[in-house]
Design goal:
- Helix content is about 45%, strand content about 15%.
- The protein is an alpha+beta fold.
- It folds into three domains: about 150 residues, no CATH class; about 55 residues; about 210 residues, no CATH class.
- The strands form three sheets. A six-stranded mixed sheet has the order 2-1-9-7-10-6.
- Helix 6 packs across helix 7 and helix 7 runs antiparallel to helix 12.
- The chain is elongated.
Length: about 450
């Protein structure tokens, strides 16, 4: 057991050596001559054993001092007779011994054994000290065992450790770490460097969080407005808004005719791969001409909104979910427009163009309507999305939250081009050429 305890690494606080002289009890009548002398430990001849010098006692010394205390308690228990002066001297010596035993118990209490044998040895030694010196156990701090208020077993307030941490945090490290020739100094420098690196990382992390929360706060404040508008569209695509909260008013605001209904015509000629703009069916083509014919002025609604879509819209207008949106799909048709496309291709080829010609009808539109609510404006804001993406963890929360809360109500409406093919052909036939469309021709 003594060999196991000898491997114990004691805390940094040192222990005062104890020498109790029991040869002549009559010489201990004066308190100044009590049997305890506080000196430096033999393990550090330069004074490192005293707490004020910042040294540490060896495990053998702690064990030897504990054994001396036990033997001394046995000798004092056997001495039952003595004069009043001897009794007073014993009481004085006992109080000082209790103080030293408390220090021993505190050091043993903070020790962390490396194996089970050491743990048993330390436990046995602590029990023997408590039995031999019950006054030391009773005289401990009432606020906690060997510590401050509310301290628990193994949780000791150590001012020197706090001082060491502050020194490591604010101390210098020199031009480079290590290589001073003093192992102790090198160890301290490395410890300082690690402590300061950790402090810098914590400071950067705090600044990072503060920046994110500040950005979110500013964005949320900007999401508030005093506008009476209840519903609106993304101004990058459509500039539509309304205060109406009924079905007819909503449709009147957002179900207007599409603004970009057109007939697109493009001509392509075959070319080498390096100069190609388009690859189709394994061949490379270059765009020769491209023009579009506007049809917006002839677009009219083909049919009214269906009863099922109106029911969906009424449900949306009554929702309490501010993140819910409405998607209005606008489909445009033109009866027999394929015949017009054939005439355009034939006329351009007759004028001398030998490449491929593509004619397509464009005009289908998607209108997405949002609610003018602070929380909805904040969550749909691009700045908010960017901040959540930068926060990484926030992005993992933002995506599933928006997926669960952003319900979409889809409506379908139909429009048509109210113009006969023959009438429109008369407007454009004399302007078609091998190079595309020439607006100056009559």
């Amino acid at each position: 057991m003594e060999n196991d305890v000898a491997k114990v690494a004691t805390p940094t606080s040192s222990i005062q050596s104890i020498n109790v002289k029991n040869d002549d009890l009559q010489k201990r009548n004066r308190p100044a001559e009590t049997g305890i002398s506080l000196g430096k430990t033999k393990s550090n001849p330069e004074g490192g054993g005293h707490p004020a010098n910042g040294g540490s006692a060896k495990p053998q010394e702690v064990m030897s001092q504990a054994q001396e205390m036990l033997e001394e308690s046995k000798e004092q228990a056997s001495a039952k007779q003595g004069s009043a002066a001897v009794s007073e001297a014993k009481e004085s010596a006992t109080s000082e011994q209790n103080a030293v035993v408390q220090l021993l118990l505190r050091q043993l209490h903070t020790f962390r054994p490396s194996n089970e044998a050491q743990a048993k040895a330390v436990q046995t030694l602590m029990l023997n000290l408590k039995e031999a010196y019950p006054g030391a156990e009773q005289g401990r701090n009432p606020n906690g065992p060997y510590g401050g208020p509310g301290a628990q077993s193994g949780m000791v307030s150590n001012p020197k450790m706090d001082e060491h941490f502050i020194t490591s945090l604010g101390g210098g490290t020199g031009a480079r770490v290590g290589g001073t020739g003093d192992p102790v100094m090198d160890h301290h420098l490395v410890q300082r460097m690690h402590t300061q690196d950790l402090a810098v990382l914590i400071i950067l992390f705090v600044i990072y969080l503060v920046t994110l929360f500040f950005g979110w706060s500013i964005t949320y404040r900007m999401s508030h407005n005093s506008s009476p508008v209840k519903y609106y569209t993304n101004p990058r695509f459509h500039q539509l808004a309304t205060e109406a909260q009924d079905v007819d008013g909503f449709l009147a605001a957002f179900n207007g005719t599409p603004k970009e209904v057109r007939l697109e015509v493009a001509g392509f000629v075959e070319t080498v791969a390096e100069a190609a703009h388009v690859e189709w069916r394994g061949m490379h083509y270059q765009t020769t001409f491209f023009f579009s014919l506007d049809l917006s002025q002839w677009v009219v609604p083909a049919e009214d909104c269906s009863s099922s879509d109106r029911a969906k819209l009424r449900h949306y207008l009554a929702t309490t979910n501010s993140l819910e949106t409405v998607d209005i799909h606008k489909d445009v048709t033109w009866e027999n427009w394929e015949e017009l496309a054939t005439n355009i291709k034939h006329t351009i080829r007759q004028n001398g163009f030998q490449g491929r010609i593509d004619v397509s009808l464009r005009g289908n539109d998607l209108v997405r309507v949002y609610q003018n609510h602070p929380w909805a404006n904040f969550m749909h804001n691009r700045t908010t999305k960017a901040l959540f993406a930068l926060s990484i963890v926030g992005g993992l929360l933002y995506v599933p939250y928006m997926w669960l809360r952003c319900n979409r109500t889809s409506l379908s409406t139909r429009f048509k081009v109210e113009c006969r093919i023959s009438d429109y052909w008369n407007l454009i036939q004399d302007k078609l050429s091998a190079t595309g469309f020439e607006a100056g021709n009559r």
